[in-house]
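Translate sequence into structure tokens.
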Amino acid sequence: MSAVVLYTTEYCPYCVAARGLLERKGAIYEERRIEGRHDLRTEMEVRSGRTSVPQIFIGDRHIGGYDEMATLDRRGELDPLLGDLAAD
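Result follows.
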């Protein structure tokens, strides 16, 4: 299992933006597409407490959606979180 997990739908613009940001960072992530997948939607809702996509997890930490991840990036806090995965 990847240490970065994204719950997404294919055409959600925030999901596209989240994938793009992680790809620019060179992060390896697991994408879990929830459309048509009641089991994955339920898993996402239980883990995050939210119903919207994307929902992003880095390790055991729930980051939130794209806006929260972008804020971490602007503050310089995203790279250390992603870098901590390499040490695991």
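Note: The first strand starts at residue 4 and ends at 8.
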